[in-house]
Amino acid sequence: MSRAWNFSAGPAVLPEPVLRQAQDELLEWQGVGASVMEISHRSRPFIALAEEAEARLRSLMSIPPEYKVLFLQGGATLQFALLAMNLATRGQSADYVLSGHWSEKAAREASPYVRIRTAADASVSGYHQLPSFEQWQVGSDAAYVHYTPNETIQGLEYPDIPDLGELPLVADMSSCILSQPLEVRRFGLIYAGAQKNIGPSGLTVLIVREDLLERSRGHDMAMILRYSEHAAHASMLNTPNTWAWYLAGLTFAWLDRQGGVEVMGQRNRHKADLLYDAIDGSSDFYRNDVDVNSRSRMNVPFFLHDPKLNMRFLEQAEQRGLIGLKGHRALGGMRASLYNAMSVQGVEVLVEFMREFQQTNG
Ligand SMILES: *Cc1c(COP(=O)(O)O)cnc(C)c1O
């Protein structure tokens, strides 16, 4: 068995050099006589690892000094609730842009802690088009405005960042973080589950502007739920996911060697263009219904003109070493996720297979 071209939406493919280095170091890490999983998170070598991972992420994303970077657990889903608990006071409202599965869940999970207002809703377009920034209805009294720049399931992505003046913009970047250059200063808070573009699941990266940490002062909350406490204790209030933190650090180093987010942005644009061109040029044998300006570079759902061919498509794809292509159960069809660790070559193999499959089944 060799490694396949893996288009899984998450947990997703990791860079092979990262896995190889982890394999090399699995039994014994950096002269400590044990693996990185088997030593104290408060030991000097682990603290150095943690600091280096953060420094690399800061440099990759050009994170300004007035932002804290936290390495947390509980997935993006825990942050759906925590960000409301930390950023809003009781009775306050927050404005949510509902653009698909994840932003809707984010609003639902926050609703016990903040009054949710809908700023815009993509369901009216059948999730084929994102509401433009001009259509967002945002109140100046909102504690924050939440949106999901890339909707992993419906395959919708905002190509740029809204300007909301003083209102803190909060973004769930689980499926698009590090995929292109980003102006962090435009955001109050960014969070991302690691298992798409960073590392294994079980780690969540949070980037938060320092002044927002003050907001939870006076809230009746356990320490472990407070961003300010995590920040004050370098994300080591309790035992972190040391293994995931280590792998994230290796991925950041790999990204650096690739040329950083600038190069990733170009490569990701090229990969997405290859696949969308193949879909659009197939005379409707394959279809993606998302408006061109709302199409995701990271997650490309597509449908065969005849759903009866779905099983055959997936089986033959797997025989060709292409896995993870089955669409989300809510949508059916196919989905190819094109995160950083998916190479241009992998997408070329997929596109070639799609052409051949059309020739024999069209
Ligand atoms: C995968 C995903 C999530 C869920 O992340 P968990 O780590 O499983 O909680 C949330 N938001 C987006 C945009 C995602 O892609």
Please describe what this structure looks like.
The structure is a single chain. The protein is of the alpha/beta class and 362 residues long. Helices cover 35% and strands 16% of the residues. The protein has 10 helices and 14 strands. It has helices at 16-24, 44-61, 75-87, 101-110, 210-213, 227-232, 242-258, 260-280, 310-319, 344-361; strands spanning 5-6, 67-72, 93-98, 115-121, 145-147, 150-151, 156-157, 169-172, 189-193, 204-209, 286-287, 299-304, 322-323, 334-337. The protein has a 7-stranded mixed sheet with strand order 2-10-9-8-5-3-4. A 3-stranded antiparallel sheet has the order 11-12-14, covered by helices on one side. A two-stranded parallel ribbon has the order 1-13. 44% of the residues are buried. Residues 10, 75-77, 102, 148, 152, 172, 174-175, 193, 196 line the site of pyridoxal-5'-phosphate.
Q: What's a concise summary of this model?
A:
This protein has helices spanning 16-24, 44-61, 75-87, 101-110, 210-213, 227-232, 242-258, 260-280, 310-319, 344-361, and strands spanning 5-6, 67-72, 93-98, 115-121, 145-147, 150-151, 156-157, 169-172, 189-193, 204-209, 286-287, 299-304, 322-323, 334-337.
What features would you highlight for this structure?
7-stranded mixed sheet, 10 helices, 14 strands, globular, 3-stranded antiparallel sheet, alpha/beta, 362 residues, binds pyridoxal-5'-phosphate
Listing every helix as H and every strand as E from the N terminus to the C terminus, the arrangement reads EHHEHEHEEEEEEEHHHHEEHEEH
Strand residue content: 15-25%
Kindly provide the radius of gyration, computed on alpha-carbon positions and rounded to a whole number of angstroms. Answer: 21 Å
Query: What hetero molecules are bound to the protein chains?
Result: pyridoxal-5'-phosphate
* Strands in their spatial order, largest beta sheet: 2-10-9-8-5-3-4
Classify the helix fraction into a percent range.
25-40%
Q: How far apart, in Å, are the first and last alpha carbons?
A: 31 Å
Question: Rough shape?
Answer: globular
Classify the secondary structure makeup into a structural class.
alpha/beta
What is the tally of beta strands?
A: 14
**Mean pLDDT reading:** 97
Number of helices in the DSSP assignment: 10
Uncertain runs with pLDDT below 50, 5 residues or more? none
Biggest sheet architecture: 7 strands, mixed
